[in-house]
Specification:
Strand order of the largest sheet: 3-2-1-4-5-6-7
Strand content: 25-35%
Structural class: alpha/beta
Distance between the termini: 18 Å
Number of strands: 9
Order of helices and strands: EHEHEHEHEHEEHEE
Shape: globular
Largest sheet: 7 strands, mixed
């Protein structure tokens, strides 16, 4: 049974997609152990509470230093003996010590087709604004392992989404979430839960 912890900062729509996928059997062999947010007002915490999942807020603002926050976050994850940490709209930069300790055990979803529209400064609605500004015809989402870089870890899954004439950033963001993010994140977790993901020379091999 894959023990999963989810880190969130906002509304938790990707978290809800994961919860629903576990309930429906799209994700198997998986237990959602904890949801942690840096934001005490994140609706994602309410989603977790409604589903009976342990939830807590660990905010950098409540610590005297970033080092203390990092230690508290790592301890919370360690104490729950997690196999996988999922970043589902987590806006906090993870400490290098955590990334190293959980190597190839942290995954993130990015709202574009990496290596396009990714890296420093590319997050949230800004990604979709840049996609529309460039005029590309396809965008999408990517699930990848987290390494020390920004959106540079091994890619697990990608799904393309059409960019339509007249799209606003908000409309495109919604389409990318509905058609790509909410589908490939559960897909990736299920692959990992069932031992089908292997990282070889910095690339992901899927053993279906």
């Amino acid at each position: 049974m894959l023990r999963v912890g989810v880190l969130v900062s906002g509304g938790g729509t990707n978290l809800q997609a994961i919860i629903d996928a576990v309930d429906s059997g799209v994700i198997t062999n998986t237990s959602l152990e904890v949801v942690i947010s840096n934001n005490p007002n994140a609706y994602a915490l309410t989603r977790a509470e409604n589903h009976g999942i342990e939830h807590l807020c660990i905010s950098p603002k409540t610590f005297d230093s970033r080092e203390q926050y990092n230690e508290a976050l790592i301890k919370a994850l360690d104490d729950r003996n997690l196999d996988l940490v999922v970043l589902a709209g987590c806006m906090v930069v993870l400490p290098a010590t955590l990334i190293s300790k959980y190597k190839n055990r942290i995954i993130n979803i990015h709202p574009a087709l990496i290596p396009s529209f990714c890296g420093k400064g590319f997050y949230g609605l800004h990604v979709h604004e840049e996609v529309l500004k460039r005029g590309v015809k396809l965008t999408g989402a990517t699930v990848h392992f987290v390494d020390e870089g920004t959106d540079t870890g091994p890619i697990i899954a990608q799904k393309a989404v059409e960019v339509k004439w007249g799209d606003t950033p908000e409309v495109l963001q919604k389409r990318v979430m509905e058609e790509a993010e909410w589908k490939i994140m559960p897909y990736a977790i299920n692959l990992i839960a069932n031992g089908k993901v292997e990282v070889i020379d910095g690339k992901v091999k899927i053993n279906e």
